[in-house]
Amino acid sequence: MRSSTTLVLLALTGLACSTAPATRPGPAHPNLLIVYPDQWRGQALGCLGEDPVVTPRLDRLASQGLVLTQAVANYPVCSPSRAMLMSGRWSQANGVLANCNTSGTRFGYELRTDERCWSDVLAEAGYSLGWIGKWHLDGPREPYVSSPNNSAEFAWNEWTPPERRHGFGFWYAYGTMDDHLEPMYWTGEAPRDGAHRVQQWGPEHETDVALRFLRNEGGALRDPDAPFALVVAMNPPHMPYGKVPERYKQVYAGRSARELCPRPDVDLDGPGPMARLARDQTRNYFAMMTGVDEQVGRLLDALDELGLADDTIVLFTSDHGNCLGAHGEVSKNNPFEESMRVPFVIRWPGVIPARRDALLLSTPDIAPTLLELTGLGARTPAAMQGESRAALFRGQPGPRPDAQLYLWFPYGQPALGRRGVRTARYTLVIEKSADAPSVTTLFDREVDPYELHDVAAEEPEVVERLTRVELEPRLRRLADPWLDR
Question: Within a 10 A sphere around the Cβ of 258, how many other Cβ atoms?
Fold first, then answer.
């Protein structure tokens, strides 16, 4: 068994179903494995008993680790959330104020080359780093690369040159591309016009590559004498939902749309497009999750076979959730629970006690937490704005936040858009636009967990208190120009 521990971050909302005390300090510099599917809402873990999704391997992982049931994506859309994960900084500071696509490129929205990410720190400390799958942190540039989701006029997918990979020496990735059954990748050496496509479901193929990295036969893919950090960033369960192998769809055969989608915030019987979306695609969304669950099981089995399980931190989480018709919303980038809540399961046997915790974790907190867990807390960049929760993860005393920020910026308008806070009980959102009065929304999730009733007009004192005590101080620390509108 290696002397260094493998840190595996699994982004799933259902951490641990049992409780066990920490029994050992763990190695000084564990390995890190992060499994990071796209668009996986926090309610969708079988062991949580919320969505009727089949996830036996993740449920087992949750029984062995810490499950944060109230983790959120503070800006629940791909690029901004990923930038906060990597940088440990809020969007106002890291500059990724909306998705990396043609619209975002006009305003410089991409992860900066000089941004000091957790991965840069690990690489400088001697870790061998690998990234497999979706990156989505580079702005497309003309002439756009040939890709199914790029046209001559508008693009999403872009190559990431080596100097923009933030310490990841092993590279098998793409920007963003949604043909899950025939995905495309750039290898570490491939030029911008050198991507290749494969005839295999993306998560399965990426797990094959990840297993080769873990096994590292002949020391070909990483330094066998150094700790490693590997991110497996799968695109599913991101739309299009039907692009999933039939064997995973069969898991949900014979179940009605109402059985699969009992949520009262979905107009399942209506004639509109969101009702049709929920009726037609919920089973495919869950099928993708069951398929990803199987791949997680393969990774966990490999850790066992290689004797790395006890020295591995595994993290499962996601960049945001998915409404899939709830509240009349097609997907993410809104403040509803289905959009904001993400799974967060982290396992480090004997170090992180297995349990569930309602800690209000925010995305920027993840980077400093990982650095402290990997023994590199002293090297945390001063510019990181998140707070390490490593002590709490270990079951030790530590500060617990009272609220989580919510953010949304219109392209090119950093002083407008939505800002809000989510507490253990309330979700407050205030939207400012250029040509209309601001709009305030308040949900009391304690009595209205599905956020069906806006009570802002009925609870003005709650709105005032949350705005004054929780929202405005946070935005002032970020010098957010929204405050001055």
Answer: 11
Query: How far is the C-alpha of 82 from the C-alpha of 72, rounded, in Å?
Result: 13
Q: Which of 187, 217, 224, 185 is nearest to 203 (CA)?
A: 185
Quick one: 3 exposed, middle or buried, by C-beta within 10 A (0-12, 13-18, 19+)?
exposed
Model pTM score:
0.94
Taking each helix axis as running N to C, give the angle between helix 78-87 and helix 366-373, from 0 to 180 degrees, rounded to the nearest 10: 40
Q: Considering only the top CATH level, what class is 404-484? A: alpha beta
- List the chain domain ranges: 6-393, 404-484
Give the residue among 415, 414, 468, 423 at the shortest CA–CA distance from 442: 423
For 140-206, strand residue ranges (E) read: 170-174, 184-187, 196-197
Give the H or E element holding residue 405.
strand 404-408
279 and 263 in contact (C-beta within 8 Å)?
A: no
For residue range 360-390, list pLDDT tens digits in order: 999 999 999 999 999 999 999 999 999 999 9
CB 180 within 8 A of CB 243: yes
What's the chain's Rg over C-alpha atoms? 21
Look up the CATH superfamily of 6-393.
Alkaline Phosphatase, subunit A (3.40.720.10)
- 114: which residues sit within 8 A by CB, 6+ positions away? none
Please give the biggest Cα pair distance in the chain. 67
DSSP codes, 2-15? -SSPEEEEEB-S--
